[in-house]
Every structure is written in C-alpha cells, then in structure tokens.
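Open question from group meeting: does this chain pack into something compact, or does most of it stay loose? Before anyone orders reagents, we agreed to write out a predicted structure and look at it together. Recording both the input and the output here so the notebook holds the full record.
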Amino acid sequence: MPIPPRDREPDPPPEGAVQPPRGDLPQPGPPAEEAEPGPDAATGAAAPDDEYAAALREAEDRWRRALADLDNLRKRHARELERVAAAERGRTAAAFLPVIDNLELALSHAAADPGAIVEGVRAVRDQAVHVLERLGYPRHAEKGVSFDPARHEVVGVVQDPEADPNTVVQVLRPGYGEAERQLRPAAVTVAKRE
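Structure tokens returned:
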C-alpha cells in the first residue's frame, strides 16, 4: 500500500470501520457523578413500566396462542380417533357378513325339516344382525320400496305387472349401513319400466 504524502490528509476509512482515537478527543477520566433526578424524572420512570407492560402483553399473547394451538391439537386428535374408530367398526362388521349370509342360506334350505334347528339358526342370525345394528350398520331388506342406487345393487330386472316400475321386487341379499357408512348395498331385483 502506498504511503500518502505528508502534505495531504489520508483517505477516510470505509463506512462502518472503527476509527483510531485522535488526539483532540477528551481522555477518559473518573466517572462523573449522576445528577439528582429533577422534575422530569417521572417521564423517565415510566419507561420501565412500559417495558414490563409490553412484556406482560407479549407473554399473555403467547399464552393465548399456546392455548389455541392446544385446543386445535385436541380437536384434530378427536377427529382422528373418530375416523380410526369408524374404520375399525367397519372392519369388525364386515367380518360378520359371511356368517349372516351362511345363516340365510341355511334358513332357505331348512324348510324341508322345520325342526328346532330352524329356530336356533334364526336366533343366531337375529343376534348377529343385532350386533351389526349396535355397531351402527342397520339391516335394510325392504321390498316394494323405490330403487335407491345408494342403498341397492341391481342384480336382475323382472317384468312384474303388480309392481310399480323402478321398485324393489325381491331382495336377494340384504344391505347393511346407511349413506357413507354402508358395508354393502342390498342386492335386489327391480321391476322393469314399461
């Protein structure tokens, strides 16, 4: 770095750089005694109170936000638990369907021997249907009702002069559940439109 000539002032240091002390600055000495508070001291004393009040407001705001976050977490957790419980109830109820189907089949073939077995099988079927109802999946196997694609699955169409068009004539397999909570629709035959 070149040395500047003596007759010229050195270049000012870059902005933000620390400047070396100059001889015209006062030298540090013993600390001066603080002056007694004057009549304007009341305005200076309010500053710490303002700081404490601001800190208190900030802490209260953070506390309220934490409570809101906790409440949102609790609600989200409750929704998730309900979703998992509904899915589990659906799996449990679906496990009963083959049992009910076999009991229905046994009841349809038991007409040749109307003994005590028919009553026992019917009681088991009714008990299984009741379990499904308690789980939230009521049985629907109504004849003569209007066809509803949300509740019925058409497996056949028949010509029936006594039935209104587009009504359920026969239920081949009952359905279980309602609306979005349906295990399966009822398998039905429907009257043909003319």
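Observations to bring back to the group:
The chain is about 45% helix and 15% strand.
The first strand starts at residue 139 and ends at 140.
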